Amino acid sequence: MEKINNLIAYIIKYSIYALFLVIVVWLFMISGFSTSYINTFSEYTYYTADNIWVHFLGFCILLLLMYGITTIVKHYDLYEINDKNFACIRNSLLFCISIIGVIIVICTQTIPWADQKKIMDAAYGLRHGDYGMFLKGGYIQSCQNQKGIVLFIYFLSMIVGDYNYIAFQIFNILALVLVYKELSDIVKYLGMNKICQLVILAFGIIFLPLSLYTTFVYGTIIAFALALMAVKYELLYFNNYKWKEVLIFSVAITLSVMLKSNSLIFMIAMIIYALLKLARIHKIRAAMPIVLMLFVYFTQSIVVDFYYREKIGEPMEKGISSWAYIAMGLQEGYKADGWWNRYNSDTYYSNDCDSDRQAEKAKKYIKERLEYFMEDNEYAAKFIGHKIASQWNNPTFQCCWIINNQSSNIHQPNWIKGMYSIRGQDKLSKIFNSIQFIILMGCLLFVTFDHDKLKLNWLMLQIMVIGGFLFHILWEAKCQYTLPYFLLLVPISIKGYSNITYLSEYTYEKIRSKKYINATSIFIMVLIGFAVFISRSDSKIINNLVKIDDNMEEYTQYLMFNTTDKVKDGNYGIYSYLNNEMSITCLDLSNETNSKIDLNQKQQDNIYITTKGGKVYFGFNDTLLYLDLSKNEEIENGIVQAYKKNDTSAQQWVIKRTKENKDTYYILIGKHSALTYDKDIGICINDFEGSDAQKWIIR
Length: 699
Fold this sequence. Notes:
Elements: H1 2-33, E1 34-38, E2 45-49, H2 52-75, H3 83-108, E3 110-111, H4 114-128, H5 139-142, H6 147-160, H7 165-189, H8 194-206, H9 208-212, H10 220-240, H11 243-259, H12 264-281, H13 284-312, H14 322-329, H15 343-350, H16 355-375, H17 377-392, H18 399-404, E4 407-408, H19 414-420, H20 422-449, H21 456-474, H22 483-498, H23 505-510, H24 514-536, H25 540-545, H26 552-560, E5 570-572, E6 574-576, E7 583-586, E8 594-600, E9 607-612, E10 615-620, E11 625-629, E12 640-644, E13 654-657, E14 664-669, E15 673-678, E16 682-687, E17 695-698
Antiparallel strand pairs: 1-2, 3-4, 5-9, 6-17, 7-8, 8-12, 9-10, 11-12, 13-14, 14-15, 14-17, 15-16
Helix pairs in contact: 1-20, 1-21, 3-7, 3-8, 4-6, 6-11, 7-8, 7-10, 10-11, 10-12, 11-13, 12-13, 12-21, 14-15, 14-16, 16-17, 19-20, 20-22, 21-22
């Protein structure tokens, strides 16, 4: 019997490793050859080409830097930092992480909207006897995964008051610190040294995407922090078998699932880990954590349902079926494949809020959809490739989009607005795109070289990543959902880099061996060869699964029409490129509200240019009028005019410098229109073509 158990455990271990290897290689290649960006207005995903050779260059520079640093570490024998100095450095790094969170929260002061606002409204209603959101058709009754986070806000509001989202954001800051503290501790219990623990914390300082989520009034950071705490204490338990640790990780993972239902993936991974331990040691103490974890979880579920039933006076009916989320996750969407498209809510309400009826129809749709995938493998590959790329290959994980779509209580400082502006998002994406590639490269080194990769402790992290990856192939997609799983790759990546650098004493002598050097060289050569093959391949499978770059031109245009070249505020003359004697003027000033725009032989600085919120305003001197488009259903069809200031999109222009000289620009508006000179009708708006008629001299 023991041999059979060992064989089963052996098969499971290698299956986990093989699946994790496939996922890492896949994500690594996607990251190398493409990048996904998100439209800050519509949440639409752009798939663009990337240069893997630039990433390889960055990787080489990083290795040289690591080699230099770790050589110094080895020379001065700094591998074992004494406990006092280590604690000082660690606490300083954690303090820096907290300060970053505080600065972001204070300088943004965002106001919750969408789901964030709804859960706060629900908590307010629960406190003050308005239970509409908990009854049939209400938001919480429909989306019952929100019951836990609403209850948390409900009890929090008893202490700090209703709609005190700053208090929630403070909790997010504390959770942010706890995330990196627990990751550092997990690294310790996985057998890595103090230097690696500090590297985790240093990463926390530079990795802004998670820090920016401190503004997000949702369970994302808090639930993740609790899940990591649970993982740490489970690792501790199987080292010393203290029952206190069982209780801590059982409560922590239960609270995590309560606040964010996706944390159930972490819980399942913890159960699988415990089962593998049970198969190895064959003792009841290995089974008890599973029993207690499940007991606490189901007790919590019963208690929460009982509390709501007593509070609102009746049990809540079933909400939106889980099958509807899977059905939606298998659909094309206007944002990206598998993203939210109202299917789950629309079908719920169209079936009179009958969960069972909705589930029946969703199952039928899922069956039909899977049959279609089986019939058209090329389409299936493209769908899955795009869905994975939209979630895992967005370097900012939607953090800027979240802030950008929230209003604020203050006039935010320019550096904050600049950071999450479209131009700022593009720059941040490029920085974190490189970091993402480097992290995935480290994971590839781990699965290739690491002697600990099949140990149960490391397999638990791998199971969690696998669970998140597989779950979101089927479920509703969003790049914010995959952020926790990406962070789980960081310890794995650091372990990978420790195998080819001097990050640990174990590798110091090993790296000098001829055998190891040969293995590393072969690995790099195979990797480069693989990259060359993919870059030159025109295979539809590879293009659908790896080289996902459908929207290069579209993204370029999006940036062009939403990021203006800077000019100093002041008086300017704007002249036609075709005839630089003709300047734009405002005529017929008898009308106080609007007037015609024309070209006139006036050599004067008659327009005052101001830049605000990444857009340019053209005000006519000696008037209160601005360059404007008349009200039409579509801004692209507007008629050019001068009109009183109204801060609408009809007066928000973008200027782009041309290649001719520094004073020549395109003046753009909307999604694809440009100010144009037409000799027959004068100044008008046409689709952007880059013609001479659309070039203007601004001086």
